[in-house]
Amino acid sequence: MGEVEPGPAGPLEPPEPPEAPASRRPGGIRVLKRTMKRNGSRHCLNRRSRFGSRERDWLREDVKRGCVYLYGADTATATAASTSATASSSDLHLVLCTVDTPASEICAGEGRERLYLQLHGDLVSRRLEPTERPLQIVYDYLSRLGFDDPVRIQEEAANPDLGCMLRFYGEKPCQMDHLDRILLSGIYNVRKGKTQLHKWAERLVVLCGTCLIVSSVKDCQTGKMHILPLVGGKVEEVKRRQYCLAFSSAGAQAQTYHVSFETLAEYQRWQRQSSKVVSQRISTVDLSCHSLEEVPEHLFYSQDITYLNLRHNFMQLERPGGLDTFYKFSQLKGLNLSHNKLGSFPVLLCEISTLTELNLSCNGFHDLPSQIGNLLNLQTLCLDGNFLTTLPEELGNLQQLSSLGISFNNFSQIPKVYEKLTMLDKVVMAGNQLEVLNLEVLNCMSHVKHVDLRMNHLKTMVIENLEGNKYITHMDLRDNQLTDLDLSSLCSLEQLHCERNQLRELTLSGFSLRTLYANSNRLTAVNVYPVPSLLTSLELSRNLLECVPDWACEAKKIEILDVSYNLLTEIPMRILSSLSLRKLMVGHNHVQNLPALVEHIPLEVLDIQHNLLTRLPDTLFSKALNKLNKLEQLEELNLSGNKLKTIPTTIANCKRLHTLVAHSNHISIFPEILQLPQIQFVDLSCNDLTEILIPESLPATLQDLDLTGNTNLVLEHKTLDTFSHITTLKIDQKPLPTTDSTVTSTFWSHGLAEMAGQRNKLCISALAVDNFAEGVGAVYGMFDGDRNEELPRLLQCTMADVLLEEVQQSTNDTVFMAHTFLVSHRKLGMAGQKLGSSALLCYIRPDTADPTSSFSLTVANVGTCQAVLCRSGKPLPLSKVFSLEQDPEEAQRVKDQKAIITEDNKVNGVTCCTRLLGCTYLYPWILPKPHISSTPLTIQDELLILGNKALWEHLSYTEAVNAVCHVQDPLAAAKKLCTLAQSYGCQDNVGAMVVYLNVGEEGCTCEMNGLTLPGPVGFASTAAIKDPPKPTTPSSSSGIASEFSSEMSTSEVSSEVGSTASDEHNTVGLDAALLSRPERRCSLHPTPTSGVFQRQPSCATFSSNQSDNGLDSDDDQPVEGVMTNGSKVEVEVDIHCCRGRQLENSPTLRENFPIPCLEERARGLVFGIRRQNSVNSGILLPVSKDKTELQKSPSTSCLYGKKLSNGSIVPLEDSLNLIEVATEAPRKKTGYFAAPAQLEPEDQFVVPRDLEEEVKEQMKHHQESRPEPDSSEEGRTELAEEFDTAL
Q1: DSSP letter string, 206-230
Q2: Which residue has the higher pLDDT, 10 or 435?
Q3: E strands along 639-744, which residues?
Q4: What pLDDT does 1042 receive?
Q5: Which of the residues 202, 483, 1114, 1211 has the least number of beta carbons within 10 Å of its own beta carbon?
């Protein structure tokens, strides 16, 4: 934010003492003297430029205290012009106040006349009433967004970033941002009036729309300007002054401005443009979204105005240009006053007898006056989005009324006034509160043909007599609660929409029926009588039908039949024999066989995916008796998800076939489709193909060939060259040497795939941080912007940082997840005003609440992105889809707030989602508050799938889990999901992320579990890392931010080890070390944090006076219990007494390190000493190293060991056999043993008295088990090494 300075003191404020010189901070904010003074008022404090310690203390005393940022008028102009998102130093003030402080008191303290409120960066700003309380408005706004904690609401209200969603202005923001309407502009000399009494002055002159705007250069953006309407006026040349024009308005009180130009070119350009404006005879005036409370006075002199658009303003009644004066528009025919929050119907509008169109939607009306019957010429009346419950009887006088909109009101029944309005042919009452469908009322309206009762509460239907209705032709009953529907009395019904009800049985009349849409119900029977001879389209998908209705088989004109997602076991022969059927959708049923065709049929699209087909009839594609191919006109064929082994060779007869989708079968022989002249798309992925027979020439139309997932398919170079002209060829790549991703984390790994489909840009971004919050958790996210790519990228870059901040403030997963979404919503700034994005965030962290679980998974989402957990092979949905179609509660909330839901189920025609990040201009209908769920992770949890809307629209949860549960590579699994979605017809952006989980107890390395040691790979976060890992900037291509640096220098390791040996235990013996060392914990079972960190002794720590890097050690004093020689080699021994447990270990480790015998395991006493190399201890090699390479190198064995509390690393097996390694310790000539070893006879190895005999026995056994030396080394002499066990 730019520099902010305090404005002039309020009228009741005593003058402040002189301030000390202000210090500057980054960002240009001045740090003022922190003195807080009362403004003389009980509620309002003096405005400040920023918070000081006293201000903060004052705020902490009461959560009802806070601050309000007051912007200047030019701030809106600068923001709208995208030149600056902040105000200048003189146009932003900070006012401390309470929730009880009224706007009038703030105005008095600021020297303002009034305050204006602007929401979501819109151009519309509302003037606050003197009694309104600005801080309470802010608190209510934040509470509706989702903030619950009063303290947090107080903090958020003080954040200046909130200005992108809510602002207060001391002056009305000007509308200079309508740059598209500005024709000409410049700074010229101007004189007002026809006489020479006024002097020439330099002014800013703008020709905007149909007006000439003149203002001073200094105050050009503060709203202080003169507007001269030019329509009907004059533009004349001033002869007594060169290059000068006189602009005059029309009317009795015409004004004139003389403008002098500098050049002839400017003079001619202005004259030409202004002459066009003057010659216009304006009939339509659009003043929508202008924050008007009254219309400009000059409009009343324009007698030609026939249409006036004042939508989305704040028009008042009793003002000079208010609604009560609109009767002056004698020729006005159309008036739009929607979204003005009038509250009550302006009665004087009923005196404008010329009106034919009146729009009063979304104004909060509860009733209509009887005078509305005076508008006898009215033809269209729109009253949507109000609170009406009845209509006056006088409305029946409007005999010319042909369109009446009363959707999204509070009607509980169809108004009887419809019976008098004989010109109306539609009853449009969507989104009301009707619970009973009374057909008797409709029978009394012979003029009504269309009935729209969408999104009501219809549960039952009432019909008192059997008299039929011969008038209604179209009925829309979508999104209600009907269980049974009998419309057989509507004998003229042509089209019925009844999707998303709870219908079990449906009965209709077939006399006139043409289209029937009954998807997403529970239908088991659909009865239509007589047979609908005119039926062309029948959609019955997602029901419980076990067979295709008989009457559908007899329909002679049916062209489209969709019975997918039902319980069908067979397809009737009569359906496949239909001579009119062109599109048949029978996917996702239980069909086992297809009937054999006899005659030629005109079928163009056949979809039988995901059934139980094992073979296709051999004669399916052969020729019929009339010598025509049975499916000669077939263009698209989908056979996916069956059990087919072959496709009949007669498919080559389908000359018009351009799309064949047959993935996820058992096809081993490539079908003969490459000879088809129009073939374009072929998908044979996930089959058992072994070879491809290629014709001499491929069709030029072939664009897409998918052969992925055929593990036995090998393509020769000649074949690949033949396919080179294909636009998209998908084949399995040879597996590349993969890095050991588990070096970063043994508990989870992820893979991401994103595909743009047929769109030009990818509007999906993903977030993946495998090591989050210093390596103790992970964060994964998916963001879908639908049509914009800006917001997903912003969320990808910022949301992890916001989560990290919120986790540090609260341990409650519901709180910090909710705050993460709400703060991210605020941080979107201006980009989030008009754009929105679905967001999904998954956070894995150690579970401190459930001691039986190692980690917990917290999932939060808004929009349509979803996460599914695979637990014991079964899908477990963790998200909630916030859409009008799938969430009735959210749909009801939006309806209660009087949003207009269009017929395609979108809020205000924009989006079907009810919760998004961004889209602040749709507040309060669209909110950012997320759905949050937490679940403890168990050993049964195998993987986590994150996907956007397009993925889950084409894949069920079960199918997605089954498709990837046996895939080893998470990246391959994610790609497979995206490929499946595209194979099912997805043409939109699709994204999938698969996270493999391994959070069982086999990863535990705690001593509390009896040394349950992991396999050869340890958790990277348990290594000795000085600096916590920091995620890098997310990649622009994949959106993954998961690279970390975890290295420690050699000197750091040596100094840390040396301090452990010499500083902490210089007076403590071996037995004391045994007693004082605490239990060692792993990441699954972290030790409760204490206030003081204390390093504990490790199993074995070696250091030398000089390490490999040449730095001297600080450990010069000998300590008790340490073997010392000439090179000052120090050894500290810490014997662990614990029970060993036989584990599954890597063969590599079994070969490199000795394993204690079974007798030693049985005794439970195991000893060992681990050497540490100064070059390698505590250093994590780069992740890109190959695992096998790391295992072969002894210097990197610490990577596969256990991290001890002092930072040293002990190999997994060596921790079970300390003494065996100790016998070999002096032989080592590298690392800490690089110094020359000079053995002294008095060197001793100290062992406790009670363990002396057992140590001798083990050493003897070790000496006997050593291999014999080679013959080449017989002549070599070697000094005997002696370990004295004197006590």
Answers
A1: EEETTEEEEEESTTTTTT-EEEEE-
A2: 435
A3: 659-661, 681-683, 704-706, 728-730
A4: 35
A5: 202
Separation of CA 479 from chain center:
26
Residue 126 CB burial class (10 angstroms; 0-12, 13-18, ≥19) = middle
* Whether the Cβ atoms of residue 810 and residue 836 lie closer than 8 Å to each other: no
Look up residue 924 and give its two tokens.
């309060």
Amino acid at site 1236: P
Q: Is the pLDDT of residue 567 over 70?
A: yes
> Does 674 score more than 80 pLDDT?
yes
Which residues have a Cβ under 8 Å from the Cβ of 364 and sit 6 or more positions away? Answer: 341, 342, 343, 386, 387
Q: List the one residue out of 740, 736, 734 whose CA is nearest residue 1184.
A: 740
Helix axes 134-145, 150-157, angle to 10 degrees: 120
- List Cα–Cα distances, 811 to 124, 669, 852, 934, in angstroms: 40, 58, 19, 13
DSSP letter string over 581-629?
--EEE--SS-----PPP-S-----EEE--SS------TTTTSB-TTSSB
DSSP 838: E
What is the mean pLDDT of the segment spanning 369-376? Answer: 94
C-beta of residue 792 within 8 angstroms of C-beta of residue 785: yes
For residue 741, give the 3-state DSSP assignment.
helix
Higher pLDDT, 1002 or 429: 429
| Helix (H) / strand (E) containing 482 | none
Cβ neighbours of residue 680 closer than 8 Å, sequence gap 6 or more: 658, 659, 701, 702, 703, 704
Written as six digits, the tokens of 1028 are 């916590």
User: Residue 396 and residue 422: Cα distance in Å, rounded?
Assistant: 9
- Give the position of tokens 């009802």: 64
In this predicted structure, the answer to whether residue 1141 has a pLDDT above a threshold of 50 is: no
Cβ atoms of 35 and 16 closer than 8 Å: yes
End-to-end Cα separation, the chain, in angstroms? 73
Q: Which phi and psi (to 5°) does residue 434 adopt?
A: -70, 130
Outline where DSSP puts E strands in 370-435: 380-382, 403-405, 426-428
343 close to 366: Cβ distance less than 8 angstroms:
no
**Non-local CB neighbours of 581 within 8 Å, separated by 6+ positions:** 558, 559, 560, 561, 575, 601, 602, 603
Strand 728-730 to 704-706 pairing: parallel
Burial class (CB in 10 A: 0-12, 13-18, 19+), 718: exposed
Residue 305: pLDDT over 60: yes
**pLDDT of 822-832, one tens digit each?**
999 999 998 99
Is pLDDT above 80 for 735?
Answer: no
- Lowest-confidence region among 228-237, 297-306, 653-662: 297-306
Whether 654 contacts 677, CB under 8 Å? no
- In angstroms, rounded to a whole number, what is the distance separating the alpha carbons of residues 397 and 392? 10
Burial of 129 (0-12, 13-18, 19+ CB in 10 A): exposed
Instruction: Report the C-alpha gap between 160 and 71 in whole angstroms.
Output: 11
Amino acid of residue 622: S
Pairing of strands 211-216, 125-127: unpaired
Percent of the chain at pLDDT exceeding 90: 40
Asked if residue 899 lies in contact with residue 891, where contact means CB atoms within 8 angstroms, the answer is no
Do 34 and 52 touch, CB atoms closer than 8 A?
yes
Q: Which phi and psi angles does 620 have, rounded to 5°? A: -60, -40
The number of angstroms, rounded, from the C-alpha of 25 to the middle of its chain's C-alpha atoms is: 35
CB 710 within 8 A of CB 686: yes
Residues 1101-1135 pLDDT 10s: 333 333 333 333 343 444 443 333 333 333 333 33
β-bridge pairing 234-237 and 166-169: unpaired
DSSP class per residue in 236-288: EE-TTSTTEEEEE-SSTT--EEEEE-SSHHHHHHHHHHHHHHHT----EEE-T
Q: pTM for this one?
A: 0.69
